[in-house]
Amino acid sequence: MSNAVPAQIAYSHFSVAGQPLTEQLAHALETAIAKDETKAIILELEPDRADFDVDQVLAQKQLFERFRILLRRSEVSGKPIVGLIRGPLQWLQLEIALACHARFAPSGSIQLAFPGLIYGLMPVLGTTQRLPRLVGISVAARMLLKGDRITVADAASWISVPDTESAVADWIQRHPQPKQPWDTETTETSPTYSQSAVNRYLLENVYLSLRYRFTPDEIAPTAILRCFQDGLERSIDAGIRLEAEQWAVVKGSRSTRNRIETLYRTRMRALAEGVEVTGLDQATGTDGLARVLETIPVVTKGDPFKTHVTAAYVQEAILMLGEGTSPWLIDNVALNSGMIIGPLAMADLSGLDQLLEQTLDTPELGTEAREAIRILSEFTNRSRLGRKTNAGIYEYDAKGNQSDWAELSQIFMRSPNQPPAKEIEQRLFAIQAIEALRCVKEGIVKDSSIADLASVLGWNYPAGKGGVLAYTEYVDGFPDICANLRKKLGERFALP
Amino acid sequence: MNSLADVYVYDAVRTPRGRGKAAGKLHTQTPLSLVTGLLKELKQRHPGIAQSTDEIILGCCEQFNDQGGNLARSAALNSGFDVTIPGLMVSRFCGSGLDAINAATAKIMANQADLIIAGGIEMLSLVKIFGSGGPMGSDISFKDSVVQVPQGVSADLIATLQGYTREDVDDIGAASQQRAHAAWQQGWFSKSVIPVRSETGTLVLDKDELVRDNVTRDSLGKLQPSFEKAGLNYDPFLRYKYPQVSKVRHVHHPGNSSGIADGAAVVIVGNRRIGQELGLEPRAQIIATASAADDPCIMLTAPAAATRKALDRAKLSVADINLFEVNEAFASVVLYFMEKTKVPFEMINVAGGAIAMGHPVGATGAILTGTIVDEMIRLDAEFGLVTMCTGLGMGVATVLKRV
User: Fold this and answer.
1) Can B359 be counted among the known catalytic residues?
2) What ipTM was reported for this prediction?
3) The pTM is what?
4) Which residues in chain A are closer than 8 Å to B141, comparing Cβ atoms?
């Protein structure tokens, strides 16, 4: 390539994945742009590692602002900037590729993705603005908010194949002063103008689908959607400024800090140390991690830590059911707090007979366990064993759709004064934390960070809260919450 | 310091309500032409107002495109009113027309104006509800805090939470049609409805286009619910605000929901002195107004609260009121109002409502005000009350007294 065009910058050392921003590159780019004799700039974008190094990327944060300005200056410099995509790109390399005037790849099968959302991260160099303007809001939402991968073949309108010297030279020849599409059209006439009737409808649906998957306390997905919404009704420069402001919000948020700590740092440590954690072996690379985080959990006998904590979680919900609380209220509060499945739906999925058997196996049956046995027996005595019999706490149709079991409110008289959602949430989360503390104390799990990781990978505990024990710091006044619950409901809420 | 002035309704006119679709009879009119027609009618009836009006205040929900740019001032200029007469636009979604009257009342009561023409306009065949946008559609944090769902889903949520059956809501829908049909048959709207004519004078519409004959609970029972499809997207989302709801029962359909409509209405409001000066006959007195708000997610429940506030200001109780106009945005709104205030349906919307005749949102409050004044006179009722639900969970109310 080096002879194809004059004054190129070859930029080929990405062996340390996720660290493409350097002072040297910034300086070289600035110099090249400033020189009259520079006819074009070639950026070779090397593939990233499957599991990028979050800490190394974050360590570059002082360069984010410099590159934001630099990439934008490159775009409007009048000099062709060509990106050569050498392999699968994610995050910063992809962001740089988007800021190029043209992109070339050797094959259509190369994958592109932005998997940062798993770690509560969002683009930092303008991708929330360039990607939707280039590929449309729907595809951009799938990539940035769902982590979907696309191939170079899917991106045929903005990535050319193959990347031969002649193809690149020819493109440069034909585009001596290229402009980005966002620099040639007005915001209001752009197909991605977020205030058009079509895009309002589209963004509303993106929002609704986001809220099925992420609760509002997960800051990064909200920030990305906000960048779409607010940025796409403004100029690209204003949009990039907005993105930078949202990045500042995201990086300081508890949900992002918790996700990085648990899903990145602790997971890397567990992998390195060979610690046994349910789901860890499948959770390698961001793809594997995403798959594990989409798995609907059940209460099992296999993993003692998971068994103890999920059994306590489900039992607490069973007790509430016995107190006359609506099952929907209990499960919806759990979903609203970020659990992937409500405890009673989880009970039905696990099998009420199995839960009963497990509870009966408890060495010393306390008052609550005996009450849970009584409640569970009301179902099993009627052969209502859960999803497997299409009848449990809920009714299920052939497609698995859940509905009310009419007799339930007669067997457990529905209290006219249903408890506040906050109290239900506190009970469901405090009981998990207390049981996990007990497990750490008894050596069932190695340490509290591993307990957090195990909860997220094991039963899809909301990662933004950091994990089952990080919750004790995530929620304000955890000791007081437990003290109040203990006073009201009994010794199971005593801190171990 | 002057004492508060008495505020009178001197006249009220409206257009017939057209179907708010491209095939609707009023669709080829413009918002400006509809208001202009009404202002010209008032000017013809009461020539002195073209010079003596202090202000024209119009309510309009969606103030953009042809409904933007201060339609009140535009209509004043377009109708041959004196060039010195200013215009003011207000918006509180569906309550805008009633708020225009309430704003006029407040100005006159406080001796800041003598005579105001207040009313509303909306052509839903031309603009979409929420077409002007707003943070409830585009601000993520705000959306999270309010859990906004489409109005029809909110109406179904009310029915679900309060246990209203399909039969309950269909009864309201059927009664609205039967009452509106009877009212038209008996000419109760003959003084207030001004036919719309084209530029060449051809009659465009002289009767509410949506009113149907022979509507019964059984005939409505055949209609499919309208908001099941929206519910696929929004019902699960409701758990953020109403986690106790297992399943939303979708009971509303076109036969028990307000019709999407085009229309306009204006009311002359003024103090005693200007009425005497211009020889205007007072038809009713506006004695109190109020606005209130409730949860924006369920959205449509605030009329009861607005009613209580307005009645408190008027030093009256629900039992003192002889007639009510409760906007039939959806049947469950009326049922909820009845449940909270214990007002029997016989005293509500006696000439039918928006389910039968349509709901040109920004205009409806002014239409209802004109209707209640006519009905108070016809039935010799001492007190009447108009109330409406609006977007974002608000409610508006106006209390009137026969003179």
Assistant:
1) yes
2) 0.92
3) 0.94
4) 216, 222, 226
